[in-house]
From TrEMBL:
UniProt similarity note: Belongs to the thioesterase PaaI family.
UniProt protein name: Aromatic compound degradation protein PaaI
InterPro entries referenced in this protein's UniProt entry, alphabetically: ACOT13 (IPR039298), HotDog_dom_sf (IPR029069), PAAI_dom (IPR003736), Thioestr_dom (IPR006683)
CDD domains: PaaI_thioesterase
Native species: Mycobacterium paraense
Record key words, sorted: Hydrolase
Presence of the UniProt keyword Hydrolase in the record: yes
Domain of life according to the entry: Bacteria
Thioesterase domain boundaries: 80-158
Gene3D superfamilies on file: Hotdog Thioesterase
Length: 183
């Protein structure tokens, strides 16, 4: 399709990532906290979704994780603001990965549901976003976590609560097929 003149300069962004299949066995053989500490230390690569959305791991503790995200215009919707799905993905990642930090070796997780409240629009002028996920309750089969995203000025952008399914990973370290894999 040929776009008519006057619609701005064409832009692009190159996204590179490591094959996540190669890190599955390592992730399954570590506690969630040890896994995220290895990512923070550069011993394991970040996940492809982190590279796609320009998320960076900033801090990790048991039951708490922090990511930053540098939004760019490639995340814009037709109205000229960052798509809510990008913010939701950031919230989902922070909440779910916070839960992961509490899990022992051989245990996985996936989102059951997420409830998001969008409080303000995000643009490239919002600056670096910070997402903090914290565990509310880490159960043996169901866990509850929450997350907040703030902009560079510290203003709250969005919040989320999440319910997560906790399950034993199969012995071959491949998680079951689901619609919400967050690692």
């Amino acid at each position: 399709m040929k776009i008519a003149a006057g619609w701005g300069v064409e832009q692009s962004r190159l996204v590179t990532w490591r094959d996540p299949v190669t890190t599955q066995a390592a992730a399954a053989s570590m506690s969630g906290l040890a896994y995220w500490q290895a990512v923070a230390d550069g011993q394991l690569p970040p996940s492809p979704i982190a590279e796609l959305l320009r998320m960076r791991l900033e801090d990790v503790q048991n039951g708490r994780i922090e990511f930053s995200c540098a939004p760019d215009a490639s995340m814009y919707n037709p109205l000229g603001v960052v798509h809510g799905g990008a913010v939701c993905t950031l919230l989902d990642t922070a909440a779910a990965c916070a839960m992961h930090t509490t899990l022992p070796e051989g245990v996985g997780y996936t989102s059951v549901e997420i409830k998001v409240n969008y409080l303000r629009a995000v643009t490239t002028g919002s600056g670096i976003l910070t997402a903090v996920g914290t565990v509310v309750k880490a159960g043996s089969r169901i866990g509850f976590a929450e997350a907040e995203v703030t902009d560079a000025s510290g203003k709250l952008v969005a919040t989320a609560t999440s319910t997560l399914l906790v399950f034993d990973l199969p012995s071959n370290a491949k998680p079951p097929s689901t619609n919400g894999n967050h690692s």
